[in-house]
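Sample 1 of the test manifest.
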Amino acid sequence: DAKTTQPPSMDCAEGRAANLPCNHSTISGNEYVYWYRQIHSQGPQYIIHGLKNNETNEMASLIITEDRKSSTLILPHATLRDTAVYYCIVRLYNQGGKLIFGQGTELSVKP
Amino acid sequence: DVKVTQSSRYLVKRTGEKVFLECVQDMDHENMFWYRQDPGLGLRLIYFSYDVKMKEKGDIPEGYSVSREKKERFSLILESASTNQTSMYLCASGQGAVETQYFGPGTRLLVL
């Protein structure tokens, strides 16, 4: 079972920041938070991951709360091409094996 | 650039046929995975492999087998295709402690 809870859908205006929340209240100390997205009819794409510090890369920023029970993925300037289903995944570092994808958040970026 | 390719984007087969789905990665990754994705069920792991000639069952291995003769290639085999195997099949590869998994574009299989 997925260990995360996400809203099923969100809208965002093009050019604005998209903030996608994720709850993972049962996360343990050695579990990482990963984000993937899946654009329609394509394979999932890795975005970012983190343990407890905030992370940023060329695609997005990841903000993890101090108690690590929730996190937010931020797309700073959403474009129409960011329309996709976004998955928040919790897993052990060096676990290997499967990724457990929940239902994700369907983000619609509108002009 | 990271690349995982799958042999077909769309495939139509008949019930009872033997079906081969091929996946190739160019990143020298040790680990490779086969998932299927169905509406309302999300992604489910069928098989994975952490080395050449090694394989491990995932959550739904029944009706499938796999082959990994070379590091870069991981094949999924449907021994006798059935209509309930109509699905989107996704291959992924990964390596290392963080093991970001990189996915191929997917093969949409229809079994008639």
